[in-house]
Amino acid sequence: MKTVVFIGSAILTLLVISISAFTVSEGEYAVVTRFGKPVKILTAAGFNLKCPGFIDRVNRIDRRIHTFTTQPIQLLLGDKNPIVMTFYICWRVQDPLLFFQSLMTTDIAVQKLGDMVNSELGNALGDYSLNNIINTNLAEVKIVDLEKQIQKNTNMLAKKKYGIEVAQVGIRRIAYPKIVAEAVYNRMQSEREKEAMKFRAEGKEAATKIKAKADREVTEILAEAYKTSQILEGEGDRQALKIYSEAYGKDKEFFKFTKSMEMYKDILGQKSTLVLSTDSDIFRYLNNPDGKPAK
Amino acid sequence: MIWLKKNFSEIIIHEASLLIRFIRWLIASLFILYLSSGFYSISSNEIGILQRFGKVIDDKVQPGIHYAVPWPVDRVTRVAIIFVSRIVIDDFYSASTQDSKAKIFSSLTGLDSYCITGDNNLVNVASIIQYTITNPFNYLFRSKDSEILLRSMAANTIIHCLASMPIDETLTRGKQAIAIYIKTELQKRLDNSESGLRVSFVELKDIKPPDRVERYFSDVVKARIDREKMINNAESYRNEKIPEAKANATRLLQESAGYKKEVVLRAEGEACRFKKMLAQRHKKGDSIRKIIYIETMKEILKNVEKKHIVSRNSKGETPARLKLFNTP
Asked: Is the ipTM of this complex over 0.95?
């Protein structure tokens, strides 16, 4: 009989515990409501008790960081440049009670935060020009400031209204509307065409320079060589003349004679036609063995 | 009847005690079975997180065999920590591949996907990010979807990085710098957001001008090569022409030197010969002159094929004769 009582009471105890005990996991907060009215907020994980069943209800709230991306929105920058942006937002529940009381669920929160960020963006973007978004000078780029500004404002609002902390807001994507993008594409194209043309022109210029210089050098080398060769030859001629005149100066008449003889030899070749008179000295003996000139 | 009754109740009591004993045994063995179900193992590439009533009591359960109080008290979650995960950030890449982020954006807005560089050029970027879980507790309980977080932050870092970089740098030597920037900046943000992730490697898979203008960019590269080619051609022209000219110059000089030598030697020889003849003439008088004359004539007349010998006696001077003299 004792055992039956023991077993029976054990089962009863377990039953009571199972309907009145609950655990809170590390990744969540819990708000205990009694007939809909919050009575207990649990931020630490662990074992907890409540009034059983229908009296108390446990509402679990995800306490982890959530990340989502906003819908693309097209806005005007301060300098009237249109731009399309989407943002990512990291948020988490900071005040579970407020979050619970404002009847928030994750889906609603995402929607509300997205709208908030986009409207904050609309307010903030007027203070920034395109040069503050993109610039080769790092000091001019103010994206971080823009993101911080939006994050700060959204965070303040969301904290007050929904008990949500907005931990990070960042640009997820940045783009131009179609017409602007078209213009940018065209500009990129013409810039590149110009650059290509410049390179080719440079190449042509440099090549022409090198060739012209080479041609000049060639001319110079040849002229220099011609000059030296003329000097050499002239020197040779001078020396030869000197030698000739030294030798021939000794008997000018005889020199004329021998030179003439040489000249005859040179100019009268095989093809020449020679008409000689029998009176000439060499034929002196042709008709006349005595050697007396014919009268 | 009483006997029967007594006997019957005795039997019932006996039977009941047997049943109770059996139930007791059953409960005991079930309880042992229940307790023994608390043994669990963690494999070598994992780490375990032990929760008791939802509260974490050990977030670094090392590999091996362990014991935990069975359900509903304890709960063990295994997290792979050695495993390297890999995601491709294709938000800014061309929308060609199916279900890429670029495609989704394009279908949402009808716009191309790209990132904008500091000098207002559009560029397509795809990068690969490898990461590991270093803090299982944060990974499980502080961040809802760490991969989305990582992806968003990575896209943001790319935007930040390119916003101050000119396109030429982006496409060439900037690659390394971009990857380093993404890695350090991303890690900083991940640490701030308790994601439990660590970036182990960032690689720029591809970075290129958008498809529409890509050929103009490659033409610039080609133009640069063309420039080098033109210069090289001109240099080889120079390298051919100058040695050639030098060779010609050398030849000319050699010829002239030869000429000089020749002229001088000839002069010397002739002068020598003349001197010798002169000496002979001094010795022999004018007769040597006659000898030279006759020798010369002999030689000339031997060579000349057409010889006309005209006697002076035939007085009739004909024009033909004069003409013959005029022939060169």
From this structure: no
* A276 CB-contact burial (10 Å; exposed 0-12 / middle 13-18 / buried 19+): middle
Work out how many domains chain A is built from and give that number. 4
**What are the residues whose beta carbons fall under 8 Å from the beta carbon of A290, sequence distance 6 or more?**
none
Q: Which of residues 212-231 of B touch A (CB under 8 A)?
A: 212-213, 216-217, 219-220, 222-224, 226-231
- Global pTM value: 0.73
Residue A152 has which token pair?
Answer: 């700060």
**pLDDT tens by residue, A197-255:** 999 999 999 999 999 999 999 999 999 999 999 999 999 999 998 988 888 787 788 88
Read off the tokens for B307: 């010889």
In Å, how far is A186's CA from the nearest CA of chain B?
A: 8
C-alpha distances (whole Å) from A240 to each of A245, A249, B259, B261, B276 are 9, 14, 11, 9, 18
Q: Which residue of A has its CA nearest to B108?
A: A72
Task: Give yes or no: residues A120 and A77 share one domain.
Answer: yes
Question: Domain range for residue B155?
Answer: 87-209
B296 and chain A in contact, CB less than 8 A: yes
Q: What's CA A191's distance to the chain center, in Å?
A: 14
Say which residue the tokens 């000059």 belong to. A227
pLDDT band at B29 (very low <50, low <70, confident <90, very high): very high
Asked, for residue A255, whether it belongs to a domain, the answer is no
Kindly state whether residue B3 falls inside one of the protein's structural domains.
Answer: yes
